[in-house]
Structures are given as C-alpha cells and as structure tokens.
Amino acid sequence: MIIYIHGFGGSGRSRKAVVLRRLLQDENFLAPSLPNHPRLALETLSEIVEYVTRFEPVGVIGSSLGGFYALCLSEWFPELRAVLINPALRPYETLRCALGSTGGVELHDGSRYEWHEGHLEALKELAPERYCTQNLLLLSQLGDELLDAREAIEALDGCAQVVEEGGSHSFDGVERYVGRIREFFEVSSNVT
C-alpha cells in the first residue's frame, strides 16, 4: 500500500493526491484527510501503518508538513520507506506564520481552523532526532517559495535524492517521477 500524506491545510483531495491516485491506481493507494492537530494526525497515520503492515508492505509519500509526518513515521517503523516531496523539517518554526484563529485554511474547501502555539509545541516534541536515510527518497525543487530546499538536501545527505532547479513548493511535474517512486517502493516489497 502507498499512503499519501498531505501538507498543512491540504486534504486527501489535493491536486497532488488526485494526480498520484490516478497514476498509482493499480496500487493500493490511500490519501486520508488528516486532523489538523499534529498528534492526532500522526496517531491516525501510525494506526493505519501498523494495521496495514500486517497484510502487505507500506510506503508513504509526504509533501511539506506531510513530509515531516513521513519522517516521523519512518523513525517509528524502521522498515517503512518514505518519499519526501519538498518536506518541512522544522514546521514548528516555518508554520509560526499561521498562528491565530484564522491562520489555518483548509485549501480544499476554504474552511478555517485555529492554529496555535500548542500545535507548534507538539510538532517540536514529535520531531525526529535523527533520520534513517537509507529508507528515504527526497524530491526537491530549488524554486520552493515557502521552504529553503537546501536545508532538506543537506539534512538528508545520504538518502536518494532528486533535486531540480526551478519549480515550486508544490513540486511541479511530480507525475514525471511516478516510475522512480514505484521503483523505490518495490525495493522494500522485494526484501524479506
């Protein structure tokens, strides 16, 4: 199974989730819309991974804040492979700009939710102390307007990486890498 983890304000119906669902339709593909609170989001994902790994291999694809969640999961489940798309490594700092009663906006339906200091504290407490780079594939575009792509490139040195000039935080043209993503996950499903 492949689980797509959306970013801050996203949902399981985001553009990237829809594209990946269509291109990976022959896989068991899941793109849940997650709770806004980091602990609840990771508890939900953790329960899904724990359950599904009883029956089949699982890989995760995380974008932005979803990349942070994927990093957490890859530390909690050592066999889990994760594709990180322009991941947020320090969301407890980068999401400070969203604090307030109207700071969080769900991009799919425009609804608003409160994003407060407790969310940032939870993210900081959940942050992995180290990265298991052999199970990671980084897809990064240097034109990311929200995060400094060089931070992830340096911090995740040692993992498989695809780094492109230009692009955006959304990672323009992600569909071009579906074959690479499949290959990356197939390696884990062939190992016993």
Question: Would you kindly provide a written description of the structure presented here, covering whatever features stand out?
Answer:
Helix content is 36%, strand content 19%. With 192 residues, the chain is an alpha/beta fold. A six-stranded parallel sheet has the order 2-1-3-4-7-8, sandwiched between helices. α2 (38-52) crosses α3 (65-76). It has helices at 15-23, 38-52, 65-76, 91-94, 117-126, 149-155, 178-190, and strands spanning 2-5, 29-30, 59-63, 81-85, 100-105, 112-115, 136-141, 160-164.
Please give a quick description of this structure.
This protein has helices at 15-23, 38-52, 65-76, 91-94, 117-126, 149-155, 178-190; strands spanning 2-5, 29-30, 59-63, 81-85, 100-105, 112-115, 136-141, 160-164.
Q: What is the tally of beta strands?
A: 8
Low-confidence stretches: none
Calculate the mean pLDDT score and round it: 90
Helix coverage percent: 25-40%
Q: How many angstroms does the end-to-end distance come to?
A: 16 Å
Strand line-up across the major sheet:
2-1-3-4-7-8
Main sheet specs:
6 strands, parallel
Pattern of helices and strands: EHEHEHEHEEHEHEH
| Shape descriptor | globular
Helix-strand category = alpha/beta
Q: C-alpha Rg, in Å?
A: 15 Å
Task: Give the count of helical stretches.
Answer: 7
Strand content: 15-25%
